[in-house]
Amino acid sequence: MDLQLLARFNAARSGRKPAILVTEIGSGAQRLVAPGDITEADPLAAELRARLKSGKSGLVELADGGQAFLTVSVPPPRIVLIGAVHISQALVPMAQIAGFDVTVVDPRTAFATPERFPDGTLLAEWPADVLDQLALDPYTALVALTHDPKIDDVPLAAALSSGCFYVGALGSRKTHGKRRERLLEAGVTPDAFDSIDAPIGADIGAASPAEIAVAVLANIIAALRKSPESKSHEPKGEGGRP
Predict the structure, then answer these.
(1) CA–CA separation, 65 vs 63, rounded Å?
(2) Pfam families annotated for this entry (predicted)?
(3) Which of 30, 40, 54, 113 has its CA 20 to 30 A from that of 230?
(4) How many Å apart are CA 9 and CA 19, to the nearest integer?
(5) Which residues of 175-202 are buried (b: 16+ CB within 10 A; e: fewer)?
(6) Which CATH number does the domain 78-230 belong to among 3.30.360.10, 3.40.50.720, 3.40.1790.10, 3.90.226.10?
(7) Angstrom distances, CA of residue 141 to CA of 23, 41, 59, 175, 216
(8) Which of 80, 230, 237 is nearest to 162 (CA)?
(9) What is the pairing mode between strands 78-82 and 101-105?
């Protein structure tokens, strides 16, 4: 392997940047592909996009009858929870079992304690102060759970501008309507705002914090694993969310 190519591949991995190393089996020719490099002129365009979604490496057939091996590197999916609340306490272990890294952020030190969150990463800070540390990206899901605009609004706007694969916010339709007014005034576009999962979670009639956590995790997994075309766009009911 070309050492410069290897260095670029390793830099992408360490920087949480998705990349695919394409190696032609016959010739040994290699190229490194980032998501922004894929165009319709690339004969492997559809396959490359699918592999970035699945994260799976493997052999593919080429148009000339040859084969190429795709070495796929995508960042591990993670969840950032804004609010050290009861729902977060239930969601952290569920998400970790499902393979997500989890970070909980809440400036309220009465809630953000190691006793309540012994696992995962806990930041007892204002979200606005740790945005650089969080490094939100398209492989991150952000969930806002505090009901407090002073805590939730900044990370919600940051998640939308960072292309997080899932952005959800707890609250009734009335609460979400007020949130819309604030975020649009702060510069969020209507289309971006409408991508927020609210009322949050799958419509399963969830009532308890643990049930709401299940509903939220279900929608996070659906956002990560399902193609946009396969997702339902039917309006959701209130689903028992507060």
Answers:
(1) 5
(2) XdhC_C
(3) 40
(4) 7
(5) bbeebbeebeeeebeeebbeebbbbbbb
(6) 3.40.50.720
(7) 32, 31, 30, 21, 11
(8) 80
(9) parallel
Which residue carries 């809440």 as its tokens?
Answer: 106
- What pTM, to 2 d.p., does this model score? 0.80
**141-199 pLDDT, tens per residue?**
999 999 999 999 999 999 999 999 999 999 999 999 999 999 999 999 999 999 999 99
Instruction: Record the tokens describing residue 91, joined without a space.
Output: 């969601």
ω before 199 within 30° of 0 (cis)?
A: yes
Which sign does the torsion angle of CA 37, 41, 46, 51 carry?
negative
> 27-66: per-residue pLDDT in tens?
999 999 999 899 999 999 999 999 988 889 999 999 889 9
Domain boundaries, the chain: 3-73, 78-230
What is the token pair recorded at 187?
């510069």
Q: Is 26 left (phi over 0), alpha (psi -120 to 50) or beta?
A: alpha
Beta carbons of 223 and 233 less than 8 angstroms apart = no
